[in-house]
Automatic annotation (TrEMBL):
InterPro entries: PepSY, YpeB_PepSY1-2. This is Germination protein YpeB. GO terms for biological process: spore germination. Residues 3-120 form the Sporulation protein YpeB PepSY1 and PepSY2 domain.
Length: 197
């Protein structure tokens, strides 16, 4: 748990909420609920705006993962990358206005609470050994290493594979120590973004 201050401000065009940690003054949460105009930016441009904002505020080595668009605002998820391993516990969400690229939101609680340099174990199995345990009916692409959070507040090093079955796309996490399937997520892709369920 983290102690924080919360502030609100509004005028005729903006309603802004911000939460900052009492210790260190880190922004946990920021949201500007202003109305947006006609969209001028695509997702790639929004991701670039978000990345520039994060870099300017000291959040580096982040990899974008999922994103969605709602009411002219793109919400982009970023996770920390250490030595080629995506650390999903260190998550930051950035909201970008698609009319002018303004940053309208930041949710950094996951990153602030979890971020650290980790001693990452060398996988006990190879990527090919991990791929071999996946259902053969799933057309699987090459994998990458990822550190995923578990319910018990620990993290597990996995191989992350994307695959397709009957027209649906999935992400499969195979434990890099014992080849056990840790998690399967379905990817929902639309013109409004990419989400997981």
């Amino acid at each position: 748990n983290m102690d924080f201050y919360s502030f609100r401000s509004s005028d005729e065009n903006h309603e802004i909420t911000i939460s900052m940690t009492k210790k260190g003054g880190h922004v946990l949460y920021y949201l500007d609920n202003r109305a947006t105009g006609p969209e001028q930016l695509n997702f790639d441009q929004a991701i670039q705006q978000a990345r520039q904002f994060l870099n300017a505020h000291g959040y580096t080595n982040l990899k974008e993962s999922y994103y969605e668009k709602t009411n002219g605002v793109a919400t982009i998820n970023f996770a920390y990358e250490q030595g080629g391993v995506i650390c999903y516990s260190d998550l930051i969400k950035v909201k970008v206005a698609l009319d002018d690229g303004e940053i309208l939101g930041l949710e950094a609680k996951g990153y602030i609470m979890n971020h650290k340099q980790r001693d990452l174990n060398t996988p006990a199995i190879t990527e090919q050994e991990a791929k071999a345990v996946i259902n053969k009916h799933l057309a699987v692409e090459d994998g990458k290493l990822a550190l995923i959070p578990k319910d018990s507040l620990r993290e597990v090093l996995c191989y992350e594979f994307t695959g397709n079955y009957n027209g649906s796309n999935f992400i499969i996490y195979i434990n890099a120590e014992n080849a056990r399937e840790e998690k399967i997520l379905m990817l929902i892709e639309s013109e409004d973004g990419i989400l997981t369920v």
